[in-house]
Design brief:
CATH superfamily: P-loop containing nucleotide triphosphate hydrolases
CATH class: Alpha Beta
Order of helices and strands: EEHEEHEHEHEH
Largest sheet: 7 strands, mixed
Radius of gyration: 16 Å
Structural class: alpha/beta
Shape: globular
Number of helices: 5
CATH topology: Rossmann fold
Strand content: 15-25%
Number of domains: 1
CATH architecture: 3-Layer(aba) Sandwich
């Protein structure tokens, strides 16, 4: 798949803000500071399209990107960031839940975890939501370039066991630096949008 002209469409803070279209949507979900925006930029070969920040918890809305009028990539707010109020956390949680629950365009999810750490309780909760809604998914473990091959083998076992992943549930390591996993994510997106 060649991407020619990806465009930021809009940020949504409520269901009423969602863009009106009939295109399939692939959402990116993960904890704050796990590298969601960096992954989107790497996949689209565009440096600053999805805004990255050194401050975790920067994405506070659902951001929609039109990919060549073929499909949308959707950047969901990062969850699990400690330094925001409970009220703010609940707002983000409501945003994500409403999107997963009501958005008919949603056809697939890239669920992102940090390759260096065991998935958290919130990661497990997010995966359970995705399973509950029966949304096709791929688990992508970012920052893979920071691990040796031995460490990756160990971490893969930890991630698969923590999530209780079955053979049918897809998993890949991902690195924005080396582009490891980029093909796997493209292959997943291609499968969904065809």
């Amino acid at each position: 798949m060649k991407i020619i002209n990806p465009e930021f469409v809009k940020s949504a803070h409520t269901i009423e803000d969602y863009p009106y279209n009939h295109l399939p949507e692939i959402a990116f979900a993960g904890r704050s500071n796990v590298g969601k925006s960096t992954m989107i930029n790497t996949i689209l070969n565009r440096k600053g399209l999805a805004r990255t920040s050194s401050k975790p918890g920067h994405t506070r809305s659902i951001n929609f990107f039109d990919i060549d009028n073929k499909f949308y990539l959707v950047d969901l707010p990062g969850y699990g960031f400690a330094k925001v109020s409970e009220e703010e956390k609940e707002k983000w949680q409501g945003l994500i839940n409403d999107y997963l629950h009501y958005r008919e365009n949603l056809k697939g999810i890239v669920m992102i975890v940090d390759a260096r750490h065991k998935p958290t309780g919130q990661d497990k909760m997010m995966l359970n939501w995705i399973r509950e809604f029966r949304i096709p998914k791929i688990i992508a473990a970012t920052k893979a370039d920071k691990l040796s091959n031995n460490e990756k083998a160990k971490q893969k076992k930890v991630i698969l066991k923590t999530f209780g992943l079955t053979e049918e549930e897809r998993f890949t390591f991902f690195s924005a630096k080396t582009a490891e996993g980029k093909k796997d994510i493209f292959s997943f997106i291609n499968q969904i949008i065809k």
